[in-house]
Design brief:
It is a single chain. The protein has a domain of 32 residues. The longest helix is centred in the N-terminal third of the chain and has 32 residues. Helix content is 52%, strand content 8%. The chain is mainly α.
């Protein structure tokens, strides 16, 4: 290189070629890094499995409920049986009198 900051045409073109090569190499490396980083952030697909049928279905403006699915059969049988209801105060008095 010449002194006093003067460069010949050949030196300037050589410097420009080296700078151009560095820029191309840097652009290629950043592009590869961008592709690598986008590939590494893939989310797994989750399998939700089969979904239950809904209890409520709508036909036009009318919503209907599938009553068979609201209660288990055991609970339905218990609901259909008559039960004896006692007053807790009376039950407590009768328990004290028995003692």
């Amino acid at each position: 290189m010449a002194t006093d900051g003067d460069l010949s045409d050949e030196q300037i073109s050589a410097l420009l070629e080296r700078a151009s090569a560095r820029l191309h190499a840097k652009a290629n490396s950043t592009e590869q890094e961008h592709q690598a980083s986008s590939d590494s952030f893939r989310f797994p697909r989750l399998d939700a499995g089969t979904l239950d049928r809904p209890y409520v279905s709508t036909k036009g403006d009318i919503a209907s409920v599938d009553a068979g699915r609201l209660l288990e059969e055991r609970q339905r049988k218990q609901a259909n049986v008559a039960r004896k209801v006692e007053d807790p105060v009376t039950a407590k008095k009768s328990a004290i009198e028995v003692r």
